[in-house]
Amino acid sequence: MPVPLAPYPSPPAPFTPSANGSQSQLVCSGCVNLLLYPVGATSVCCAVCKAVTSVPPPGTEMAQLVCGGCHTLLMYIRGATSVKCSCCHTVNLATEANQVAQVNCGNCELLLMYPYGARSVKCAVCHFVTSVGVPPINTLEQKLNS
């Protein structure tokens, strides 16, 4: 039977749980399929792509983010500073949910708060989109002319 190439593969083969029935899951580092494994395993071999994915130590707190390159949902160990997407290989900045930055709206000068690492922020009052981390064009022109 051929292996499906669609983003939503067929259900995994039947799983035989360990003696106490405990199992867990993680995302394959190769093909991004969901893998089931017995609790206590240190790595899991994917039946579809044969990639070996390391299992985080027990009790490790996980977090999620959406890849900025291909919009795939990524899981990573909480506290990591960056996450490389296994689909498009984009390196994503991993920030905690409470990390925010501030910038003045490029149109109405209202102070805006946005998630740290964002590329732009839209003003809720005037709907102007302000680029973050890049000086406005008029600031660049002033610096070049001085």
Automatic annotation (TrEMBL):
One GO location term (cellular component): nucleus
Major location (coarse): nucleus
List where in the cell it is found: Nucleus
Superkingdom assignment: Eukaryota
Question: Which ranges carry the Zinc finger LSD1-type domain?
Answer: 28-52, 67-91, 105-129
Task: Using the record, list the residue span of the signal peptide; answer none if the entry has no such feature.
Answer: none
Concerning Pfam families, the annotation shows:
zf-LSD1
Keywords from the UniProt entry: Nucleus
What NCBIfam families does the annotation carry? Answer: LSD1 (TIGR01053)
Put simply, this protein is called Lsd one like 1
